[in-house]
Design goal:
This protein has helices spanning about 30-40, 75-85, 130-140, 170-175, 180-190, 220-235, and strands at about 1-10, 20-25, 45-50, 60-65, 70, 90-95, 100-105, 115-120, 125, 150-155, 160-165, 195-200, 205-210, 215, 240-250, 255-265, 270-275, 280-285. With about 290 residues, it is α+β, with helices and mostly antiparallel strands. The chain has an 18-stranded mixed β-sheet that branches. The longest helix has 13 residues, at about 220-235. The relative contact order is 0.19.
Length: about 290
């Protein structure tokens, strides 16, 4: 039997945020076994903890959608780091397929532990941006609901199509619509779309990835990090260091709070950091497949 834990990530309130399954002692599991377990949990991501390849690091981790392994993801990184920290202020280094991910854990004044990681890659353009008319059809929104900035396709490990929308009402009504959705994903060479719109304090977002087995994700840390490149490219990220509150999952009834901090120097994007909380929900054992 394998030991597992369930956390709600990017929240301090149980049964909100993004659920995560963490499986311990996964050194001897095959990739096929991990994928089977991820399908069984059927959460947006399941993380498996293994011994680090470098003893100076904390752990090697592998992260799975219900349908496939992915090189990096934000909410598993936050949840795993807080789990391994055990309430201590510390720094943890995770070996992920996308690279080394350092995570700093600090106890806040209210007693909640906050984890902050530095993105393992600088985002870069992934593919040409599909026509806005196709984007609108794929989301069931009017073309005028896209903007005012241009959409873009970026990757920093995983890849996303970023779609700014004009207001919260448009964000709330958007949904993947076939067959245009599949055409859009193929043209952008991605399986996920990240929609966002400005609020009084930051941005509100939604992320759809039905092709990967995730109809909608309540919190997407990796997409939040890569968002910095989209904001810079569209003139929405100034020079210097900027911290932006992001809210996701509201339309799903699982509100999530993500803190994005990005540094721009001479017009170039520097370190990108993502911070958030997590709360334990369940623990138990599961049989080996």
């Amino acid at each position: 039997m394998l030991r597992f834990h369930i956390y709600d990530v990017f929240t301090t309130t149980p049964f909100t945020g993004n659920p995560l399954a963490i499986v311990e002692g996964a050194d001897d599991l095959t990739t096929a076994q991990m994928q089977t377990l991820a399908r069984q949990f059927n959460l947006s991501e399941t993380l498996f903890i293994q011994r680090p390849e470098n003893p100076s690091h904390t752990a090697r981790v592998r992260i799975f959608f219900p349908t496939a392994e992915i090189p990096f993801a934000g909410h598993p990184t936050i949840g795993c780091a807080l789990h391994l920290a055990g309430g201590r202020d510390t720094t943890i280094t995770l070996e992920e397929q996308a690279g080394l991910v350092p995570v700093t854990i600090t106890r806040q004044e209210d007693g909640a532990a906050l984890a902050e990681f530095t993105a393992p890659r600088t985002p870069e353009r992934h593919a040409p941006t599909p026509p806005q008319a196709l984007i609108a059809r794929a989301l069931g929104i009017p073309p005028a609901g896209i903007g005012p900035q241009d959409p873009g396709v970026w990757q920093g490990g995983p890849a996303f199509l970023y779609i700014p929308v004009t207001d919260l009402s448009t964000l709330a009504t958007a949904r993947p619509c076939e067959p245009a959705w599949s055409e859009l994903m193929a043209m952008a060479d991605v399986d996920s779309a990240y929609l966002y719109t400005p609020t009084a304090t930051g941005y509100r977002a939604r992320m759809f990835s039905p092709t990967a087995g995730i109809p909608e994700d309540p919190a997407t840390g990796s997409a939040s990090a890569i968002l910095a490149a989209q904001l810079l490219a569209t003139g929405a990220l100034p020079e210097g260091t900027t911290t932006i509150p992001l809210t996701q999952g509201v339309e799903m009834g699982r509100p999530s709070d993500i803190r994005l901090t990005a540094t721009v120097t001479g017009g170039s994007l520097g370190p990108i950091r993502i911070a958030g909380h997590a709360v334990p929900i369940a623990s138990g054992t599961i049989r080996l497949p």
